Amino acid sequence: MPELPEVETTRAGIEPHIKGKTLTDFFVRQKWLRWPVELPDTIKGQRVNEVERRGKYLLLEMDSGSLIIHLGMSGSLRLVRGSIAASQHDHLDLVFSDLRLRLNDPRRFGSVHFHSGVPETHWLLKKLGPEPLGEDFSEEYLFRRSRRKRLSVKSFLMDSSVVVGVGNIYATEALFAARVRPTVRAGNVSRKAYGNLVLETKRILEAAIELGGTTLRDYVGAGGKPGYFIQSLNAYGREGKPCRVCGGTLKKIILSQRSTVFCASCQVRSGWS
Ligand SMILES: [Zn+2]
After folding, report:
1. Catalytic residue among 11, 53, 54, 56, which?
2. Which of the two residues, 33 and 223, has the higher pLDDT score?
3. Which of 20, 78, 175, 196 has the most crowded CB, counting CB atoms within 10 A?
């Protein structure tokens, strides 16, 4: 599933090719993604002024509004020359003269909306919490937001109204690195532990973006999908394997319907570390 680093890498990859370019046409081959794709003809002839990201949404900002694109579970964007035929799961082309931005999404959980106001006022975006790499995502913020919260600290961290773009992989890894047990109630985690969690979340996401930036250099490809990178992971997907810190066996549990891996000796129950 594309997580925040993949979306940011995608944004950085397509920006130099479409920023400042005029959208000359579009083709919706499959209207039924997560929500129906209904784009007004009035966007034809408009220039893409900015290519931004908010959480896991890509924003193509034009004079009359923005295209808001989410890659869902299996979506990817690539730039192709106009002569390359679409394949089965290529649901949308945004045409910029001889170049096309093409959305491929086999599972169709992605979405594309046009919104005529500023992007932040769209219903998908208006309740989103701060960006994890921004200054607003801080020890003080998480500590304050979590007081009296009874849900687990992992579910708290994955709540997009608390912070955007921290999915299962990155929540699992950040909690491992910060040595906070995923099952601890959010309201019981100490200020200091939240400080560590903020630092580790930022560090891990930044490293993933950096890695993606090097693997997705050649964004205008003839075919195939951009290859998502795989970061070296310490906890996620390593259940039953030895902890790289203490050598103990990593455990897997299901927490809020998501698989969760942790080290019972490194990740303390109280969250006080
Ligand atoms: Zn350990």
Report:
1. 56
2. 33
3. 175
